[in-house]
Amino acid sequence: MKITQLRNATILISTGGYRILVDPMLAPKGSIPALKYATRSRRRNPLVDLPADAEALLSTVTHALITHCQKGHFDHLDRAGSKWLRERQIPVFCMPEDADFLRKKGLVVQPLESGRQAFLSGEVTPVPCTHGTGLVGSFMAHGHGYFLTFPREPSLYLAGDTILTAQIRDFITWEQPDICLLPAGGARFDLGGEIIMGAEDILAVSGITKGVIIANHLEALDHCPVTREQLTTLRDKQGLGERLRVPDDGETVVLQAAPPD
Question: 2-254 in CATH: which number?
């Protein structure tokens, strides 16, 4: 399995003959308003452009997978991403609550169900997200992460935008995914607490999984303070080595299935 980090939560999963684009935010740098206003240095989003080879990578896409997209969550499906999917009529997998919203954008929608089910050549299990709590959480589209399994490939838990909840801890502990792809930017608005995981949550997950952790949702939005440098410093300090990957935009992580016992 190959996982290419494009930008923020936008990744490309390559498995078998499939190329699955997750949460496409494809807008140019600085074309979307800021998410934090109580700051002396307000910045428009995204903070960085897509990698130079993004067009070539996107040309291989066969399917798309959306974790959440309503209530202004442009960082998981922006106008540019919707247009790109619509023009190419890419099949888009999502949860039922997002299906009509995406159909109205002219997308080819294939709703998933709750529970484990067939998905391309393998299986998928949706896992509910908690995208913040309290007042801020009440305004968020919480969405779902996905646990993906394919023959002769490592299992992948794609968490989506979520804080580290007891439900997610239990899921990781029970399923022991070979790969946990987690949002690590510690995003928060001007008011309220974190709405996704941060560095300490990544460390906590490293204590309950035997697999590899890939951190993303980094250095692309103005409300995500955690940096790649902070995570690599944490990795080195804790001796996590290759168990914690922090890919740059445009970087591909290649992982093999564990040999059978």
Answer: 3.60.15.10
